[in-house]
């Protein structure tokens, strides 16, 4: 049976011959495997491609296993959230939709080869999002677990509309690979410090499952099936990075997942500046904002006045008063 190779495949084949690095060859081979016609006439060719891909990934893992990796993403903004997921889930497109960054977006698998940080604006604060390479059964970057463990939260991005890769298998693979590295995921409103760990060295990450491409046919139905099959106590957020559907809700959920509040410091006799809030952990007190403003304020604080939407209108409060999101605090020395 003739192969009847597509123009996209033939173009990728030409680029493969000109490729100069193992990383570039791997990316092109993955692209060729994704676009090759799937029928009996290409079975041998498909097997050859899979063998080449496997050898390249194995070689890469052997090289990196012999070196020490201290790959870290310097945190910036009010919190750091890592986006993980299988191939072609749309991680880079989501980062592009939520930030001013311009990561490479492609329908080809394995377009992202390293961690890519970018800043997402939420109202008057910035949150750092980190795009990552796809996680597959065959390969995981050696530094991948460390980046996840260091983050304040995780978005697991899946594509419930597709069948290649199968979203259930892809999700199960992701969970298994990271649990092997002592990483597990919990609901976004839970406190990891209050949960008993299986053993020393485990890391529990506050997580949202983001179902991308929810605007496509069968996505909603497939999503409900996935929820039943996986039986995870983690919230699911349907979105479309392409159309923008659900992104505003996702931004709010990311903010809530970080467990932070915004507090405004007001100088007595002057108007409050609402564009540059201090960000503190939920449950912080007047003393915590005093320390954040300046260490001397904490030592010399006599009292504070507080304004907010629900309860206070300039009343005097003590140092132990617990703050809420968007409180305005006037510190008196």
Protein described:
The protein is an alpha/beta fold and 333 residues long. It folds into 3 domains: 7-65, no CATH class; 80-257, 3-Layer(aba) Sandwich (Rossmann fold), CATH 3.40.50.300; 261-332, Beta-grasp domain (Ubiquitin-like (UB roll), Roll), CATH 3.10.20.30. The protein has 10 helices and 12 strands. Strands 1, 2, 3, 4, 5, 6 and 7 form a 7-stranded mixed β-sheet that branches. Strands 9-8-12-10-11 form a 5-stranded mixed β-sheet, with helices on both faces. Helix 2 runs antiparallel to helix 3 (43-65). The protein is elongated. The protein starts with 6 loop residues before the first helix and ends with a strand. The model has no long low-confidence stretch (mean pLDDT 86).
User: According to CATH, what is the class of the largest domain?
Assistant: Alpha Beta
Portion of residues in helices? 25-40%
Could you state the CATH homologous superfamily of the largest domain? Answer: P-loop containing nucleotide triphosphate hydrolases
Number of discrete helical segments: 10
CATH topology of the largest domain: Rossmann fold
List keywords for this structure.
single chain, 333 residues, alpha/beta, Rossmann fold, Ubiquitin-like (UB roll), 3 domains, seven-stranded mixed β-sheet, five-stranded mixed β-sheet, 10 helices, 34% helix, 21% strand
What is this entry, summarized?
The protein is α/β, with parallel strands linked by helices. The chain has 10 helices and 12 strands.
């Amino acid at each position: 049976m003739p192969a009847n190779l597509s123009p996209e495949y033939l173009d990728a084949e030409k680029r493969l011959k000109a490729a100069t690095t193992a990383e570039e060859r791997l990316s092109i081979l993955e692209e060729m495997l994704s676009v090759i016609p799937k029928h009996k006439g290409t079975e041998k060719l498909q097997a050859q491609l899979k063998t080449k891909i496997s050898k390249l990934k194995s070689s890469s893992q052997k090289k990196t296993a012999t070196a020490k990796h201290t790959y870290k993403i310097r945190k910036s903004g009010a919190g750091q959230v890592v986006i993980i997921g299988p191939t072609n889930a749309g991680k880079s497109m989501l980062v592009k939709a939520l930030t001013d960054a311009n990561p490479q977006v492609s329908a080809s698998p394995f377009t992202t080869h390293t961690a890519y940080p970018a800043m997402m604006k939420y109202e008057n604060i910035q949150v750092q999002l980190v795009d990552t390479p796809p996680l597959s059964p065959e390969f995981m970057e050696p530094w991948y677990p460390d980046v996840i463990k260091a983050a304040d939260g995780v978005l697991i991005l899946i594509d419930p509309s597709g069948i290649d890769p199968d979203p259930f298998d892809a999700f199960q693979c992701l969970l298994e690979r990271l649990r092997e590295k002592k990483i597990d995921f919990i609901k976004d409103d839970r406190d990891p410090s209050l949960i008993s760990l299986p053993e020393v060295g485990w890391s529990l990450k506050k997580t949202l499952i983001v179902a991308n491409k929810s605007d496509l046919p069968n996505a909603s139905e497939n999503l409900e099936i996935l929820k039943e099959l996986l039986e995870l106590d983690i919230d699911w957020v349907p979105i479309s990075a392409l159309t923008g559907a659900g992104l505003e809700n996702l931004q709010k959920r990311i903010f809530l997942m970080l467990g932070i509040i915004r507090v405004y410091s007001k100088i007595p006799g002057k108007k409050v500046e609402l564009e540059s809030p201090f960000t503190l952990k939920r449950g912080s007190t007047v003393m915590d904002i005093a320390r954040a403003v300046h260490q001397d304020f904490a030592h010399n604080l006599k009292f504070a006045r507080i304004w907010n939407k629900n309860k206070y209108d300039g009343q005097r409060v003590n140092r132990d008063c617990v703050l809420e999101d968007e409180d305005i605090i006037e510190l008196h020395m």
